[in-house]
Input
Amino acid sequence: MNQDRRRLLDKNLLTFCRDLEVDEVGLFLISEGIFNDCILEKVTSCSTPTKSRQALIKAVKERGDVAFDTFYLALVNSRQKHLASLLRPLVSEAVFQSQENCENVLVHSSPHKLSFSAVKENFELTLNGLIKDLKVEEVDGTTAEEQLKLYENNKDSIYANFSSPKGLCLIINNEKFETMPARKGTHVDKINATNLFTQLGYKVIVKENLMGIEMMKAITDFAKDPMQLKSSSVVVIVLTHGEHDIILGSDDQPVHIHNFTSALNSVSAPHLTGKPKLFFIQACRGERYDRGIASTERDGTQSDAFRLLSCVLGTTEKPQNIRHLPTEADFLVAFATPPHFVSWRNSERGSWFIQGICQIFSRFAISHTIVDMLTMVNEKVSQNRTSRSEMQIPDFTCRLRKKFYFFPGVISGTAV
Output
């Protein structure tokens, strides 16, 4: 990179370190071949957001003049135009000449947009698939008082969810496998889900590319986290390959979903008794296609691999003794698809299921129960089509005993 461009980046380093959105820009630079996964991982693994922003600028400077122009386009496409304007004086003229045509191509070639009649405004996706302007609607002071009063008058039928943080959210994101195909686009689901549940008031913990035994250890350790004692609820998100009631580790080893979720039941984690435990599982559950999108990938295994799974499964555990509450009470497990069917994931936009959850929850968590919102997610996802007219419908099992509201923005140390 020439010295003038280097000096311009250095001159504006403080502004970049304050305002730069690293995730969106980094993914754009990967899509254009400027960064690879190793570079982006090094950038995002820095100890603070400021250091990550500084590391990204340093990496751009090391990638030459093409990287400078591409960095400018990344800022424009991620709606960081105030930062893009800082680079504009030294951007190649050819970039400006082609930019309008490029934007037209992007608009007209974008995949089919999701739609849902109850959502009046469409959510837009940036070039790299991240949901633009994903913001959870929170209540104001007056409404917060009304919601607390609603809870106080209906304690027997509504879960308390007012702690700060609301609870812990574990995200297990498996992208690379020993023999199964890589789950391209899963990083988009991870970022969108992290953004959503952080705004909903949860402390998010992300684990990536875990083997089967590591997945069980992760959920067991998660259950024992001391923060669970003061939390109102629990969220677990799994992004991986799967089949029927199985999810796969990065070593292709199966984990039975019942064994996985039972790590949080009242026998394994008695301190979570009575607290709502929400699982969201993005994985295939079979090989069937729901005929009914541009060429996307499925979160499943090849047929031979499916047949092998039954050989390595253990027997179902015997039912546990019932205590004051049923052992498996207070669970909600939401799946991307019903048993025996594939689920759909786009390499740039992520999965239909996680996309739908992020869009619906961010809009309606302020006023709707989780069961109501998952029904909306079903409707939203069902409206998608592949290029071969294949469809998908999510599925959820509810063992909650009360209505669950996220109560975004409402915090109380006394409403329990």
Remarks:
- The two ends are 59 Å apart (CA to CA).
- The first helix runs from residue 3 to 11.
